[in-house]
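Notebook B, p. 112. Complex prediction, attempt 2.
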Amino acid sequence: MYKYIIKRLLLLIPIMLAVSFIVFFITDLAPGDVVDIISGTEMSVEDKEKLREEMGLNDPFVIRYFRYMSGLVRGDLGISLVTKKDVFQVYISRLPATLKLATAGTVVALSIAIPLGITAAVHQNSWRDSGSMVLGLLGLSIPTFWLGLLMIIIFSLKLGWFPSIGNEGLISVVLPAITVGSGQAALTMRTTRSSMLEVIRQDYLRTARAKGVSEKVVIRKHALKNALIPILTVAGNQFGIAMGGAVMTETVFAWPGIGRLIIDSINNRDTQMVTGAIILTTMLSSVVILLIDIAYAFVDPRIKARYTK
Amino acid sequence: MDKTNVVTKSSVAASRKYKKNSQLYEIWRNFRKNKGAVLGLTVLSIIIITSIIANFVIDYETQIIRQVVPERLQRPSWKHPFGTDQYGRDILLRILYGSRYSLSVGIVAVMVSLAIGGVMGVIAGYMGGIIENIIMRSCDVFASIPALLLAICITTAFGANTLILMISVGVASVPAFARVARAAVMTVRDNEYIEAARAAGATRMRIMFTHILPNCMAPIMVQTTMRVGSAIITASSLSFLGLGVPPPAPEWGSMLSEGRSFIRDYSYMTMFPGLAIVITVLAINLIGDGLRDAMDPKLKR
């Protein structure tokens, strides 16, 4: 079991190396460099060139990449070009807001998706089924940022129930969480429905009914428990992605999380921050997804049995 | 004598027609039964036809981007059914004209990911071994970068314009296509007729692209349709962030971004472009769902 976990974690290392290489490579292609941005217009061309030489910007790509990576291992991703703050520190300071939004969004998603998905599966081909399928399809078709804008128009500008921007107190998380959650809910609901439909036809459910278990208990205890793994896999993946910053939602609601950090840094042409934030975000969401994946092995004896040999 | 001749002729003609169309016809017949899918197809056809007509009827210079200051920020009325924006431009006309951006970006982006991801997946699925490992591991790498962030990364590096937008949105969904194509190929590659083709001396390329590919089109086509919808959403998201189609082009995402500044007093500016996106994407997703059920009734649960 532990061998399996360690193996999975070790497998993540080459992927993360490759990811950071790709991100570093792509952002390196961006026109203009650090010197152009920090020096402004006053500096002469010779001085700029001198500064580039001093900062090692004229070194070959591979050398700069290795320098960057050795910094990354030590938690040193350089200094923001605009705010002059440490990239890693800024990133860490934005994490709690993103974690809060991702958690709240996942709670919203699960509390919409699981009941609807179960209802759809239990009453297959009824109006309830098609109703929830339409809702699911709608959820997949609405761009999150537009949904966010709509919620701002209705619930904060027209009705004045919630603040439209920022992260102050619990009430401010409601609209962003619904926005993040409804997109996730669509996919989770579809998975819940098909996973439940698969389980519902199993023999042991017939046995349970035959021995007199009530329909409610059959669905809740016998069916749902066994259908839960694919549902949680999808929900876990979505949580991992949301941990990587719900870029659009955070932009619309001016939510001070990672997604907005990345967009703000792009608008400020802060390449150092963008590179660092994207690499860290990818690592974070991969690790979260992996951890959730490993967690099943502990929860589900079927998966556990496969790896304890 | 005459009579029998006629009968055989017509039955031959009928069977020939049946054979020629059987697979496509079967899919179409299943598809037609699905009300949602037919609705989606109708709506999408209307949108496509509108965007073609708009090309001839609406003049870009005078009706789409010209600023008419006295008419700025007018609420929806008979003259301007969807109102006007902060430069006095008619929002309805801009939305009609803007359909071309979303449709073309969505379709081209998916073609990019289909061309790259599909080929990678077919090769990986058929060849197996080291080649499969290399291809699928590199897909893992790309898939672990959140799609929107990867697209953002590419557009910032190469500048915001429509072509870069298409490519970046397409590249971001390459891994998904590769995985679907590989899985589809793996279900087909061990069939007898592939072995027969190999025995007959067909080359690997020939087997991959004339024997295997046509037989695993169903999941790939469904994936393609579904992805057009999400590509349109990703593209309009990027435009909303200012990283896609640059203004003053009436791309729906950038129209929403402009409307956002006026959300407090002129909320209609953020309503209509968003509705246009939802209707288009919904139509495509309905078609995708219908295709999936029509091509593989087993998948319908």
